[in-house]
Amino acid sequence: MTACDACLRRTALLASLAPHVERARRDHRHISELLALSDDGLLAALAGERRGCLQRAHDMFDPDGARERIAGAGLHALCRHDAGYPARLAHTGDAPAVLHVAGDPAGLTSLGDHDAHAVAVVGARRAGPDGLEVARGLGRGLAAAGVTVVSGMALGIDSAAHAGALEVGGPTLSVLASGADVPYPPSMRGLYRAIVDTQAAISEMPPGFRPFRWCFPARNRTIAALSSLTIVVEATERSGSLITAELAQDLGRAVGAVPGPVNAARAAGSNALLRDGALVIRHAQDALDEALGIGVATAICGRRAGELEGPLRALLRRVEDGCDTVCALAATPEEAQSAFAGLAELELLGFVRRGPGGRYVRRV
Amino acid sequence: MDLLVHMQRPRAQDLEASASTASGEVRAAVRAARDRQAARLAGTGLLTNAAMTPRLLREMVNADAAARATLRSSYQDGSLSARGHQRVLRVARTIADLAASDRVRAVDVQEALSLRQDHLQFGAVAA
Fold first, then answer.
1. What is this structure's pTM?
2. Cα–Cα distance, A284 to A300 (Å, whole number)
3. Fewer CB within 10 Å of terminal CB in chain A, N or C?
4. What is the edge-to-edge ordering of all strands in the sheet holding A229-232?
């Protein structure tokens, strides 16, 4: 598990050119075209009048210093020339020169062979409670069958998918736009810790790096390339997760989407993917059938309403029908009391989950 | 903080409707509940459930077997912290007082659980 001098130099160059790449992004240059350029090509395309200065820094690059910084940050590094570099990723034209790994490097190198299964679950940051629950269910079902759940640790769908995988003890891999030692977004610090302890968080950027906007679509190409199937759970029409889906498609990988309400803007992008022929993913079983082959693995299922007795069953029906708050379920304080009690019981039995805003969602 | 409850904006028709409970009735129920608490705590120098120490709570909660089982399963599935466990029991005791019940029953514990939006480990994933 090593990184060679040339690949470390490339990483340092990309980090020092990061503000220039950002400017190019604003001028509508394609990020993946830029990332496919050679070191000299990058300098020529981006550095402008600072070229001489950046070129000198590039020539004087100290690889051992970089290795020390990586070790000092508690990370491991492996480059494209290392046998452990994931094969699916290595075969793409603009693959990251170096992968910095927080956590167990074996968790990443295990993705190296083609029969190790990884599925990306991505989607909107501002997702609805149903979308979050679906993402969590996908994470849980895929991980329970031994499939690595790959995502970007963003708010909303990404972190829900990670959290679902962690519920069953992983595996789940997070690809960050920041350095691999920088939990981004910072509010996901707890999730980051759990992912690193279970498997790994990785990044192509050096330790301590703070992300620019271009780093997110760049990170998405790694998510798409690591995975044999990319599933978009919820996405608006201009969502970054559609970029991930497009990149996956360009690589010839399978793309799936979870259907959402046709009148909801938050699902417009994912529904458009389905219209264009993406696989319909309703639950973890659909994802497993696609990733592993039909019937190879059976997803763990949610509880069936038939197990419940009368009043609780009726309450669950009403939650499923969209009465998802106590206010909607009860008109009087007496009714509220029994609704509170019933919802707590359904929650304990694993039928519903309390989502954001005090809304109850049917667990999948 | 013992109660953590998300509130939704009332709908227009809720504002137009007449109040579903009279403040006077609520006041009477709260008075009666506080009287029960004070009577139970006689000799301890305390007046309310809120003031009970964890030990007093254990001695005085008088929860039935079903109530304890409900609380236990919620604690075991990880949705409740040790501190949350105490709080839920305390709130359940108060709910039972409001219902004029000497025993804390399973429904009281269930209601108390719903009134506690524990920050589950990764519960707050939404934007």
1. 0.76
2. 8
3. N
4. A76-79, A98-103, A200-203, A172-175, A148-151, A118-122, A229-232, A254-257, A279-280
CA gap A39, A343 in Å, rounded = 59
> Does B117 contact A325 at a Cβ distance shorter than 8 Å?
no
Task: Report the Cα A196 to chain-centroid distance in Å.
Answer: 14
Find the farthest-apart pair of alpha carbons in chain B and give their distance in angstroms, rounded. 50
Assess contact for A168 and A143: CB atoms under 8 A. yes
Residue B126, CA distances (Å) to A155, A188, A356, B9, B123 in order:
6, 11, 7, 19, 8
- Residue A288 vs residues A282, A285, A341: alpha-carbon distances, Å: 11, 5, 36
- Which residue from A129, A191, A340 is facing B114, i.e. has the nearest CB? A340
pLDDT tens digits, chain A, 364 residues: what are they?
A: 789 999 999 999 999 999 999 999 999 998 888 999 999 999 999 988 889 899 999 999 999 999 999 999 999 999 999 988 998 898 888 899 999 999 988 878 777 565 678 999 999 999 988 899 999 999 999 999 989 999 999 999 999 999 999 988 889 999 999 999 999 999 999 999 999 999 999 999 999 999 999 999 999 999 999 999 999 999 999 899 999 999 999 999 999 999 999 999 999 999 999 999 999 999 999 999 999 888 788 776 666 777 788 888 889 988 888 888 888 888 887 888 888 888 988 888 888 888 777 788 888 7
How far, CA to CA in Å, does A153 sit from each of A184, A191, A347?
Answer: 7, 8, 26
First to last CA, chain A: 40
* B23 touches A at CB < 8 Å: no
Residue A217 CB partners (closer than 8 Å, separation 6+) = A31, A32, A240, A243
B54 touches chain A (CB under 8 A): no
Output the six-digit token pair for A267: 């699902």
From the number of C-beta atoms within 10 Å of its C-beta (0-12, 13-18, 19+), residue B16 rates as exposed
